[in-house]
Design brief:
This protein is α/β, with parallel strands linked by helices. It contains eight helices and eleven strands. The protein folds into two domains: 126 residues, D-Maltodextrin-Binding Protein, domain 2 (3-Layer(aba) Sandwich), CATH 3.40.190.10; 86 residues, D-Maltodextrin-Binding Protein, domain 2. The strands form two sheets. Strands 2-3-1-4-11-5 form a six-stranded mixed β-sheet, sandwiched between helices. Strands 8-7-9-6-10 form a five-stranded mixed β-sheet.
């Protein structure tokens, strides 16, 4: 593979990072020791590949870095892809990690009435675009209150009657006396590529897409 200007791989912090690193390593990429040092304040890390660096950012930001060309490849949940709808993101590979779902939930004691009779509802969510679309398809105008965490508090404190949030096991909802009403979308993490970069550097980027594809296949076969 011909080495040119460095490639940047955007990885999300948190739970998904732990799941994706075995695939990153299986693809032949090993970050510098500071990557695993919790005391390190670095944001960009060299790797064993001369022209490849890793940035570690928030999951929503990984999509933005790739979409606007600051990173060339990244790992992003399809919840984020659907929320932002960036046209400059190409998604060649489902990594089969980060399994969860984006769901509508409400208090257990809330009968809610007939949604077909609603014209307006207030919802707490980190995903206003997906939430508005969901309700618009049902003829309901959704007023979305943007929260980035502690979503389960919104119904308890009277902020909203409904929340739309990520659900994995459902234990957090249950602990906060909420019930899952409907799944908006099933979620996995995807390998994404900046489209303009793919056009100008197809050989390099295709090489890494293939390496990740092989890593996913190896994991599935094990």
């Amino acid at each position: 593979m011909e080495l040119t200007e460095k490639l940047v791989l955007a990885l999300p912090k948190g739970r998904i990072l732990k799941e994706v690193m075995p695939l990153v390593n299986a693809a032949g990429i090993t970050p510098e020791p500071d990557f695993d040092d919790p005391k390190s304040r670095k944001l960009e890390f060299d790797t064993n590949i001369e022209n490849l660096t890793i940035i570690r950012v928030r999951s929503f930001d990984a999509a933005t870095f790739v979409a606007f060309g600051a990173a060339h490849l990244g790992v992003v949940g399809n919840d984020v892809l659907q929320e932002f709808g960036y046209t400059d993101l190409y998604t060649p590979l489902d990594l089969d990690i980060g399994h969860c779902r984006l769901s509508l939930a409400m208090p257990e004691e809330d009968t809610g009435g007939d949604p077909r009779e609603w014209s307006h509802i207030r919802v707490a969510t980190k995903y206003p675009n997906l939430t508005r679309k969901y309700y618009a398809e049902r003829g309901v105008q959704a007023e979305c209150i943007k929260l980035n965490g502690a979503m389960e508090l919104a119904p308890r404190l009277g902020l909203t009657r409904r929340i739309v949030d990520l659900v994995s096991t459902g234990s957090t909802l249950k602990a906060n006396h909420l019930t899952e009403v409907e799944v908006l979308t099933e979620i996995t993490s995807r390998l994404v590529v900046n489209r303009p970069a793919f056009k100008t550097r197809p050989k390099e980027i295709s090489f890494w897409v293939d390496r990740f594809r092989d890593a996913v296949a190896e994991k599935a076969a094990s």
